[in-house]
Automatic annotation (TrEMBL):
Gene that specifies this protein: Slc7a11_0
GO-annotated molecular function: L-amino acid transmembrane transporter activity
PANTHER family recorded: AMINO ACID TRANSPORTER (PTHR11785), CYSTINE_GLUTAMATE TRANSPORTER (PTHR11785:SF533)
Record localization: Membrane
Name listed for the protein in its UniProt record: XCT protein
Domain of life: Eukaryota
Amino acid sequence: EEAVFLRKKITLLRAFSLLIGSMVGSGIFISPKGVLKNSGSVGFSLVVWFACGLLSMFGALCYAELGTRITKSGGHYIYILETLGPLPSFLFLWAEFFAIRPANSAVVSLAFGRYMLEPFFAPCAAPVPAVKLVSLLGYYMVLTLNSWSVTWSARLQTALSIVKLLALALIIVPGMMLLAQGHTENFHNAFDRQSLVLDKLPLAFYAGMFAYSGWFQASFVREELVRPERNIPLAVIVSVITVIVGYMLTNVSYYTVLGTQDVLASPAVAVSFVQRAFKSLISVVPVLVALSCFGTMNGGIFTFSRTLFVASREGQWPPLFSMIHIRRHTPLPAVMLMFPLVTAMVCIGDIYHLMNFFSFSRWLFIGLATLGLIVHRHRHPDLHSPFKVPLFVPVSFTIICLFTVAMSFYSDPVNISIGCTMVLSGFPVYYLIIHRQMSNRCHYLTHKLQLLLEVVQQEIKTY
């Protein structure tokens, strides 16, 4: 009885909540260990955290401009498709679906499970099977919500963003109080060069950038944003600055209370912090952190389903995944597609190996997307853009991304080689199937799944 399409339900507040909720997740609560381990000292780790924040701001500004130039949803995928062509965009989609996104979701889910169970088993570590079971239950709850309602997913993201900022405040305040009282012993000899290993720095940046990752999420839902030309740049700038300040203060608090060895030995840094600094909140903070991870899972599913939706609409993914539920107005098939891969990675994966595994592919394609901004400017010099960044921003961001990707082959050759192989495996698929157009043999199956899921093609274009 009414047109079936994705409604514009993402206001400025919801866009801000989506970005904060995607960035402040498991990263700040698990990445400090990875950054410290690969940077070698407290001082250098803080430098890495600030540099990652600055780099994230550069990338976010580039994506804000791309979001005002290219009016479709889809994030990295649509930007690469519109600027560099169909082959690199399909390779991104291939790597994103089979490696980047399921590994990323598995990392956040495992962090959710670990922190959710921590109060029940402290001071012992929670059993691994129990962690994985709770992780999957949390992921399935978010999957169900995103299949049910766009509005309720957005409302949950707003509420959990407040929880995330509260969790950071509960770590920052006691740490700053102790620092003001003169507890600076853990910062002595902060820049110890003897422990610095240059070829490990890319892995430190991967861990730090993982904590900041999410600054690009607004670009995935561009067609559902209210006044995107104004709200994308505004939401991006405010949210990234908020997160940089919050992360720097959080890390200083960690190091004020915990020594280097304590951070490296802790499976859950935030819990170790609370055990040492604020014992009265020992059962509260892990739950807040778990809810923070829950919000990141929600944001990830919300945005990646739009990538699959757009890729299907552009003819590079099966047509079923560009369909929308007739009553719920959610991209139901695209939301449900990640279910089996994330389940498998949660069951067999380890957080830090998964992080290195997907970071190579993610930053390779983000670098290519910002390279695409430079190409798009060159091809369309007269195109009016309501938001424009200085040229040195995309140039420097692209160079740093691609250089870090190249250096990571020396740092972790096994996981990076697996990630590289995953990207390259998309070549034969593209030339055998996508380049020749998709086979019509799957139309019967698509029709049956349409009836089962109650989904239809979008009736009007909103871009």
